[in-house]
Amino acid sequence: MKRSTLKKFILLLVLALSAIFFSVTALAQADININNTNIIQFGNDVTVAPNQSVESAIAIGGTVRIQQGARVTESAIAIDGDVILEKGARVDGDVYAVGGKIITEEGAIIDGASGTALENGRWGMYGFRRRGGFISRYLFNTAFHLLNVLISTIIGVLIILWRPNFLLNLAATVSHYPIQSGLWGLGGLFAVIVVIIVLAISLIGIPLLPLVALAVMITVLVGTLGVALWLGQRILTTRERSPMQQFLIGMLILGLIGLIPVLGNLVLLVVNILGFGVLLAWWLGNVRSQTVD
Q1: Domain check: are 132 and 74 in the same one?
Q2: How far apart are CA 147 and CA 233, in angstroms?
Q3: By the 8 A CB rule, do 74 and 203 touch?
């Protein structure tokens, strides 16, 4: 890898990690309470206390727990968490868990619709839910990570065989516009959060949440495949190497990075955000002038 490219990638990595750290810290401290009836929590759980009544209970990056005798008159939604209804709890409207489960104890009532999406709790290609002991969690997530890498590699190979220039365009976008792609990724992430909030507090928009999650997952996946090809190009710089070989090497590197506890997940989170931004920048950001035709 060229020294200038390495410096650029390290700079992007540091900026992205810093932005993620401060963003997550700020969001984790955010507790939106609208007229004491609509509660939205970022990065923490939402608990509706016994005999309390609220209109909506929404947790983004946490679990919604409706305790015994509590009532939610409109909707209970957890993004990357569970919705738990204890004995005697009641939700008059809809209940959705994106990246989690809906758990109802005996006597709990859901009058509206209910459903789950991405129940295994993973967004994009990588990541893990913080449950169980460290060793069991690491082994489980390692197995899931390797399965994700295998499936993603197959998808990438099929894309290269079908539309070879597509991933080359994304790799060229990373190469020419790394900072812009990272900013697009961060901006897109916040835009998704805003969309989720708007849909979550709208009864009409609630059924669209699984579709939004699916669209984000596909965008992150495809964009990350382009990042993998770009990484392979930095390693295999000789012209004799085909895009297929470069892509496979890039996926191998990402797969190995994912095996590193904690730090590996942070790096891959940055890669996911970069991949998200690459596809957005290439599609919406008018940065195709120097990409492959």
Answers
A1: no
A2: 24
A3: yes
Residue 221: give the domain boundaries: 3-26+123-284
Please identify, among 102, 117, 132, the residue that sits at the C-terminal boundary of a domain. 117
Each residue of 101-143: pLDDT tens digit? 888 888 888 888 777 765 554 443 333 344 445 566 667 777 8
Query: How many separate domains does the chain show?
Result: 2
Q: What is the pTM of this model?
A: 0.63
**Residue 61 and residue 78 in one domain:** yes
pLDDT tens digits for range 91-111: 988 888 877 888 888 888 888
AA letter at 155: I
Do 58 and 150 reside in the same domain of the chain? no
Is 197 strand, coil or helix? helix
Q: Which two tokens stand for residue 24?
A: 């997550």
Residue 56: strand pairing partners: 38, 75
Q: Is residue 290 part of a domain?
A: no
When pLDDT is cut at 50, 70 and 90, the band that residue 239 belongs to is low
Same domain for 187 and 248? yes
Last residue of a domain, one of 96, 117, 138: 117
Instruction: Give, for 97, the enclosing helix (H) or strand (E).
Output: strand 94-98
Q: How far apart are CA 169 and CA 175, in angstroms?
A: 10
Spatial separation of the C-alpha atoms in residues 69 and 80, rounded to whole Å = 25
- The pairing of strands 31-34 and 38-42 is antiparallel
**Which residue, 75, 79, 78, is CA-closest to 94?**
75
- Specify the long-range contacts of residues 240-249, CB closer than 8 Å, at least 24 apart: 243/160, 243/164, 243/167, 243/168, 244/157, 244/160, 247/156, 247/157, 247/160, 247/167, 248/153, 248/157
Beta strand pairing call for 90-91 and 31-34: unpaired
Please count the other Cβ atoms lying within 10 Å of the Cβ belonging to residue 98.
Answer: 24
Looking at the domain assignment, is residue 293 inside a domain?
Answer: no
Number of residues written out for the chain: 293
